[in-house]
């Protein structure tokens, strides 16, 4: 027993943390068994929320730091809070030393604000901006994440002087723009949904997360002063992809007029083929039928 007590005293002298197990709840705190020695942890040092029932800690393994020792009475006071804070600081130093762009971490969502979510990546908090949470537009981060979620994030940017970390969350494989480029090209006619209108034209959703602009001059061949004279939000129309800016501003040009022309051309071509086929059939039907040898002999 003396050897175990000496170990507890050494933990105090060295300032190192120790492993323990919560064995009992007592007035004002809990008892933690460290090296078979009972040490007292005040409730304020248990590192739990004020309204937490301390009984929920019983039988749990914890890390503690010995903060006071009474040699005569062989009593020791410890702190879970101090131990966790110390280990967090050590982990923080480690993470800042190894940070690099693109490095992936598993983190826990700690808090959510209107502009983004804060994620603990193991000792350091980083922020995922609302624009990085989803490839589609969202109004609030809570539409994607909630406090306590375990998430996969990566380092998007960091500032060692200001101690700020910007995290990325979206999966590049789900990038709607990438999916669009794989599925479509200039000249394709697609069904789009009118999503919003401006004086100069209408924006239309080609696929979730990807919109194109139908300029007012490409809506109809009739003169109009605003898109709303012809279109309504929610309308589904066919439009031809006339431009794709894949490298710059990622803009897509659409044309309803060009789509209608393409459809008329296709109909005309199909009608032309049918007309040609009918003409050939007519020519064949008008040709005299050649008599067979048997028919010639029977006439003679």
Quick recap:
The protein is α+β, with helices and mostly antiparallel strands and 300 residues long.
Summarize this structure as a short list of keywords or feature phrases.
15 strands; 300 residues; five-stranded antiparallel beta sheet; alpha+beta; OB fold (Dihydrolipoamide Acetyltransferase, E2P); 5 helices; rod-shaped; 3 domains
Can you give a write-up of this model?
By secondary structure, the chain is α+β, with helices and mostly antiparallel strands. The protein has three domains: 2-86, Nucleic acid-binding proteins (OB fold (Dihydrolipoamide Acetyltransferase, E2P)), CATH 2.40.50; 100-172, OB fold (Dihydrolipoamide Acetyltransferase, E2P) (Beta Barrel); 176-258, Nucleic acid-binding proteins (OB fold (Dihydrolipoamide Acetyltransferase, E2P)), CATH 2.40.50. It is built from five helices and 15 strands. The termini are far apart. The mean pLDDT is 88.
- What's the number of structural domains? 3
What fraction of residues sit in β-strands?
35-45%
Terminal-residue CA separation: 136 Å
| Sequence of secondary-structure elements | HEEEEEHEEEEEHEEEEEHH
Strand order of the largest sheet: 3-2-1-4-5
The number of helical segments is 5
Instruction: Give the CATH architecture of the largest domain.
Output: Beta Barrel
């Amino acid at each position: 027993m003396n050897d175990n007590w000496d170990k507890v005293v050494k933990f105090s002298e060295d300032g190192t943390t120790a492993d323990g197990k919560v064995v009992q709840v007592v007035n004002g705190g809990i008892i933690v068994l460290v090296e078979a020695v009972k040490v007292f942890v005040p409730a304020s040092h248990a590192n739990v929320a004020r309204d937490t029932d301390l009984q929920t800690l019983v039988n749990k393994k914890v890390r503690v730091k010995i903060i006071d020792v009474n040699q005569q009475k062989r009593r020791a006071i410890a702190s879970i809070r101090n131990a966790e804070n110390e280990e967090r600081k050590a982990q923080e130093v480690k993470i800042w030393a190894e940070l690099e762009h693109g490095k992936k971490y598993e983190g826990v969502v700690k808090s959510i604000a209107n502009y983004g979510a804060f994620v603990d990546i193991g000792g350091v908090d980083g922020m995922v901006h609302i624009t990085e949470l989803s490839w589609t537009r969202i109004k609030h981060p809570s539409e994607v994440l909630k406090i306590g979620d375990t998430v996969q994030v990566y380092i998007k940017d960091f500032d060692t002087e200001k101690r700020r970390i910007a995290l990325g969350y979206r999966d590049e494989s789900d990038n709607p723009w990438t999916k669009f480029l794989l599925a479509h090209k200039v000249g394709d006619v697609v069904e789009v949904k009118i999503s919003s209108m401006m004086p100069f034209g209408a924006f239309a959703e080609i696929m979730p997360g990807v919109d194109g602009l139908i300029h007012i001059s490409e809506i109809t061949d009739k003169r109009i002063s605003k898109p709303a004279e012809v279109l309504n939000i929610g309308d589904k129309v066919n439009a031809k992809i006339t431009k794709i800016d894949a490298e710059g501003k990622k803009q897509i040009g659409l044309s309803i007029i060009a789509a209608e022309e393409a459809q008329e051309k296709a109909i005309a071509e199909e009608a032309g083929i049918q007309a040609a086929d009918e003409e050939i059939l007519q020519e064949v039907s008008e040709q005299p039928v050649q008599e067979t040898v048997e028919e010639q002999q029977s006439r003679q």
